[in-house]
Amino acid sequence: MRGRLSAWLVKHGLVHRSLGFDYQGIETLQIKPEDWHSVAVILYVYGYNYLRSQCAYDVAPGGLLASVYHLTRIKYGVDQPEEVCIKVFAPRNNPKIPSVFWVWKSANFQERESYDMFGIFYDNHPRLKRILMPESWIGWPLRKDYVAPNFYEIQDAH
């Protein structure tokens, strides 16, 4: 099932995959990492002028990593603004996604947090460095295959 934005993207020849709608009826689209920056600029020009949130998650142990963007079309006098959810998947062995900091400045700390927790590299981010963990931390703590250093599980505890 295709939503309004998906139909508009198809009409203008922009490659994407519709993932349907979430429980609130918000359209969800998948964009390839190599297409993400140009699609982000187009969405901004189309009117999605507010990045409500950016987050990331680990799809499966050893699988893909996802960067998720919730965009909103803010207009004066509109009570129910249009929203869209964009998912960009990247392979865990080389998780690179173009940064949208230069499109939506609010992506700054959010992309840094996704980098810090999952190791997703956001190309052209002006200050991509750890924000929550110390710089000396090894690994990406929210990945499903992460093993905490110096963690010893108590066996056969009663």
The coarse silhouette is: elongated
Number of domains: 1
Please state the structural category.
Answer: alpha/beta
> Which percent range describes the beta-strand content?
25-35%
Identify low-pLDDT runs: none
CATH class reads: Alpha Beta
CATH topology label: Beta Polymerase, domain 2
Largest sheet: 5 strands, mixed
**Rg on CA atoms, Å:** 18 Å
| Oligomeric organization of the protein chains | single chain
Strand and helix order: HEEHEEEEHE
Number of strands: 7
Distance between the termini: 52 Å
Major beta sheet, strand line-up = 1-2-5-4-3
Helix content bin? 10-25%
Going by CATH, the architecture would be: 2-Layer Sandwich
Please identify which CATH superfamily we are dealing with: NADH:ubiquinone oxidoreductase Nqo5 subunit
- Mean of residue pLDDT? 92
Query: How many distinct helices?
Result: 3
Protein name: NAD(P)H-quinone oxidoreductase subunit J, chloroplastic
InterPro entries: NADH_DH_suC, NADH_quin_OxRdtase_su_C/D-like, NADH_UbQ_OxRdtase_30kDa_su, NADH_UbQ_OxRdtase_CS
Family: Belongs to the complex I 30 kDa subunit family.
Subcellular location: Mitochondrion inner membrane; Plastid, Chloroplast thylakoid membrane
Write the layout of secondary structure elements.
Elements (H helix, E strand, L loop, with lengths): L3 H8 L5 E5 L5 E4 L2 H14 L3 E9 L5 E9 L10 E9 L4 E3 L8 H12 L2 E3 L35
Parallel strand pairs: 2-5, 6-7
Antiparallel strand pairs: 1-2, 3-4, 4-5
